[in-house]
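Input/output pair, single chain:
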Amino acid sequence: MFDVVVAATALVVLWPVVAVVAVLVRLRLGSPVLFRQRRLGRMGRPFELVKFRTMTDARGPDGSLLPDAERLTGLGRVLRRTSLDELPELVNVLRGEMSLVGPRPLPERYLERYSPEERRRHLVRPGITGWAQVQGRNALDWNERLAADVWYVDNRSFRLDLKILARTVAVVLHGGGVSAPDHATMAELTPHEQRRATRMEP
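Output:
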């Protein structure tokens, strides 16, 4: 109920901002305005996440998409830094596919790359913000990020959610942690065994 009330109120209050961002994306990036991608939700069930586009669809000679760094636009960087690109996800909250707070929803292809412990992040609905986001966002490496997600699952409470929401405001205003080190956005998640082997190297 808290998710629905807050999401609905936010959409009503922020609709002018949503409209302006939509117009800017349409003018700078073209159509479609929204980025849609199947992500994993609660219990690993897929759903379609919606957010504002921040990258072009530029492709190389072989037809494959160029790296994120070459497709991310100036407007896209601003939207990511301010988290305005996430506003359409309030619709996902109203649909019951996401919560305001929870582990960030990740692509379907990542499911087989988790350890059994990391897979527990799907015991709750994914969120627009979460414990990992207020601990460093994308500046965390994948092991830290997934561990933070599992910690949230084991310690979640309404009080903790309120704390995370309050800290999210400070994180967004600060604008840090938007991208992983040496990446325009976030590094690709590698399988757990590979990440474990890398950490064990001297």
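The chain is about 45% helix and 10% strand. The chain has one domain: 2-200.
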